[in-house]
Specification:
Its EC number is 3.2.1.28. With 566 residues, this protein is mainly α. It contains 19 helices and 16 strands. The longest helix has 25 residues.
C-alpha cells in the first residue's frame, strides 16, 4: 500500500489513503446523524455496513434521496428505507463459527479452582468463546469492494458488542484465555490472521476494517506467539511468525515512529512513539471528530489534531488525559509528541521474544542482534522514563515544535509526573522484574500511588470523563502489573499480586451475576460495577475481560473455602 507523503524526512506528512466505500459511508453517517439525531447515535455502525449493490448504483440512489429545503436533511422514513434496500446489516459479513477445539469442560481446565460456584461460573465464561467466534463470509472474499470488513484467512475471536471485527491488542488477552481453555488451534488461527496482515500491509492493523489500515495498536504479536509456543512447542508457528515479527519491528522503528533523545552524558537513546498515518477525522467517529476539531481555525491545526486523535486510538488508550497537554481540555491531545512508557516496553518485549525465537530456530546472528537491541532499549527506558525519586517510569513529552528534529536533549521537566497505571508496566518484563531491589522500590511507589482500589487498579487518578482514566479499571492493565509482580519471585510482590487478582475476580463475578455479562471495563471504586465514560456506551462480551479472568483463575485458583463476592 503506497504512502502519500510530502515534505522531507521526519517532517513528511504520511497518510495512507482510504477506500471510496469508506468515504461514501462517512457521508451516510453524517446524513444519519442529521436525520436520527445524536441520542444513542453510534457512528461506527454506518461504516460497518456492507453494500447489496455496487458503489456507483448505491451512491446514485443516495444522491437522489429527497432532502428538506432548510438544511438538506433526509426524512427518517426515506433514510430507513434507503438503508434497508441498499445495505446488509453491520455484522452480516461475519458468520458465527463453532471452534473445533472447544470442549464444554476441557481436560485439565483450571485445576486450582476448587470452589464449585467459581468453577461453574468459569465454565460459563469459557463457553463465551463460542459466542465470540466468527469467520469472514465468502461474500467478503469474493467481492471485497462491497465491504469495509477485510478478508482474513482464518476464524477470529472478536471482543463483543459493537466491536464485531478482530482487534489487535485485545487478541493478546483473548489468547491468554484461550490457552487456559486449551483452545490452542483457535489461538494459532488468530496469530495466522495477524501474520497475513503484516504480509499484506507491513504491520498489524488496529482492527480488520478498511478504515483501520492507517494505524496499528500496541504491538503484542510476538508476545502472542511466545505464549502459544510455551504451551505447544509448535516450532512451525515460530518459523512462520519470525519474518512477520522482523517486519513489524522495522515498522515500529521506522522514521515516523523513532525519536532520539540525548541524555545529560551526551549518549543517544532511540525510543518509539505512536504515529497514525492519517490526518482526517477517523471514519468510525467522523461526526464526533469534526465536532471536536471545530475549535481549530486553521486547516493545519485540524490535521494535526486528527493525527493526534488517531494516534491516541493507535495507543489503545482512547482516550485519556495521558495524551493531553491540558488534562481538562480534550483538544489539547498531542499523542505524537509523547514517548510512551508502555509502547517501548512492548517493543522491548518484542526484541526479547524475537531473540528467543531466533534461538529456537538456531539463528544465532538474529538472536545476538536482538539481544543487543533489547539491551539498548532497556537503557533508553531507564535513561528517559525512570524517575528514581518517585519509583516510577514516566512518559516523556517532546519539547513543543521539535517533533521534526532528529533528536532533542533530555530534560527532567518533560517527564509527565501524573500517575497512570502505565507507569508500572515495565514490571511486566523479565529485564525489570528480575531486579529485586528495583521491584521493592517500584512496589512501594505503586502501593502508595492511589491506583490500588477496592475493585482493582485504576487507570489514572484523574476523573476526566474519558474512559482510560479514573475510576475505570481495564483487564489488560490488571494483568500486566499482576503478572510482573508475580514473576519477580518476591514473597510480598506475590501476595500483592494475588490480592489485586482476587479483587478483580470478585468484581467480575458480582458484575456477571448482576447483569449476566462480562464487561469491557469496571469501576474500581465499587465492586461489581462496570465502568463508564468515553465516546460510546459501555460494552459487554468481552474478549479481554474473559481472557484475564481465566488467566487469573489458572494462576491463582480459588480455594473451596474462600467465598466469592463483594
Amino acid at each position: 500500500m503506497a504512502l502519500a507523503t510530502g515534505l522531507s524526512h521526519k517532517c513528511r506528512v504520511t497518510v495512507i489513503p482510504t477506500t471510496p466505500l469508506v468515504t461514501f459511508l462517512e457521508r451516510v453517517q453524517e446524513t444519519a446523524l442529521g436525520t436520527f439525531g445524536g441520542k444513542n447515535f453510534d457512528a461506527k455502525l454506518y461504516v460497518d455496513l456492507s453494500l447489496k449493490f455496487n458503489l456507483s448504483k448505491t451512491e446514485k440512489a443516495f444522491d437522489g434521496l429527497p432532502r428538506s429545503d432548510e438544511n438538506g436533511t433526509v426524512s427518517v422514513k426515506d433514510l430507513k428505507e434507503f438503508i434497508a434496500t441498499y445495505f446488509a446489516d453491520a455484522g452480516d459479513d461475519l458468520l458465527h463459527y463453532d471452534p473445533e477445539d472447544f470442549a464444554p469442560e476441557p481436560e485439565g481446565f483450571l485445576p486450582k479452582v476448587k470452589n464449585p460456584e467459581v468453577r461453574a461460573w468459569a465454565l460459563e465464561v469459557h463457553a463465551l468463546w463460542k459466542n465470540l467466534s466468527r469467520k469472514v463470509s465468502d461474500g467478503v472474499l469474493e467481492q471485497p469492494e462491497l465491504h469495509t470488513l477485510l478478508p482474513l484467512p482464518e476464524a477470529v475471536v472478536v471482543p463483543g458488542s459493537r466491536f464485531i471485527e478482530v482487534y489487535y491488542w485485545d487478541s493478546y488477552w483473548i489468547i491468554r484465555g484461550l490457552l487456559a481453555s486449551k483452545m490452542y488451534e483457535t489461538a494459532k488461527a488468530i496469530v495466522t490472521n495477524f501474520i497475513f496482515l503484516v504480509d499484506t500491509y507491513g504491520y498489524v492493523l488496529n482492527g480488520s476494517r478498511a478504515y483501520y489500515t492507517n494505524r496499528s495498536q500496541p504491538p503484542l504479536l510476538s508476545a502472542m506467539v511466545y505464549e502459544i509456543y510455551n504451551r505447544t512447542c509448535d516450532v512451525d508457528l515460530v518459523r512462520k511468525a519470525l519474518p512477520a515479527l522482523l517486519k513489524e519491528h522495522a515498522f515500529w522503528n521506522s522514521e515516523i515512529h523513532k525519536v532520539t533523545i540525548q541524555d545529560a552524558q551526551g549518549c543517544n537513546h532511540n525510543l518509539s512513539r505512536y504515529y497514525a498515518m492519517w490526518n482526517k477525522p477517523r471514519p468510525e467517529s467522523s461526526t464526533k471528530d469534526k465536532e471536536s476539531a471545530s475549535k481549530f481555525l486553521s486547516n493545519s491545526e485540524k490535521q494535526q489534531f486528527y493525527r493526534d486523535i488517531a494516534s491516541a486510538a493507535e495507543s489503545g488508550w482512547d482516550f485519556s488525559t495521558r495524551w493531553m497537554r491540558n488534562t481538562s481540555e480534550f483538544t489539547t491531545l498531542s499523542t505524537t509528541s509523547i514517548l510512551p512508557v508502555d509502547l517501548n516496553v512492548y517493543i522491548l518485549k518484542m526484541e526479547l521474544d524475537i531473540a528467543f525465537m531466533a534461538n529456537v530456530l538456531g539463528n544465532k546472528a538474529t538472536m545476538e542482534s536482538f539481544l543487543e537491541a533489547a539491551e539498548a532499549r532497556k537503557k533508553a527506558i531507564n535513561s528517559v522514563f525512570w524517575n528514581g525519586e518517585m519509583g516510577q517510569w514516566f512518559d516523556y513529552r517532546l519539547a513543543n515544535g521539535t517533533i521534526c528534529k532528529e533528536s532533542e536533549t533530555w530534560q527532567a521537566c518533560n517527564q509527565n509526573q501524573n500517575v497512570y497505571a502505565s507507569n508500572f508496566i515495565p514490571l511486566w518484563i523479565d529485564l525489570f522484574h528480575s531486579d529485586a531491589a528495583l521491584v521493592e522500590n517500584v512496589m512501594g511507589s505503586f502501593q502508595s500511588s492511589g491506583l490500588v482500589n477496592v475493585a482493582g487498579i485504576a487507570t489514572s487518578l484523574i476523573n476526566s470523563g474519558q474512559q482510560w482514566d479514573f475510576p475505570n479499571g481495564w483487564a489488560p492493565l490488571q494483568h500486566m502489573i499482576v503478572e510482573g509482580l508475580l514473576r519477580s519471585g518476591l514473597k510480598e510482590a506475590r501476595s500483592l499480586a494475588e490480592d489485586i487478582a482476587v479483587r478483580w475476580i470478585n468484581t467480575n463475578y458480582v458484575g456477571y451475576k448482576k447483569t449476566g455479562a462480562m464487561h469491557e471495563k469496571y469501576d474500581v471504586q465499587k465492586c461489581g460495577e462496570s465502568g463508564g465514560g468515553g465516546e460510546y456506551i459501555p460494552q459487554t462480551g468481552f474478549g479481554w475481560s474473559n481472557g484475564v479472568l481465566l488467566a487469573f483463575l489458572e494462576e491463582f485458583g480459588w480455594p473451596e473455602d474462600r467465598s466469592i463476592g463483594c
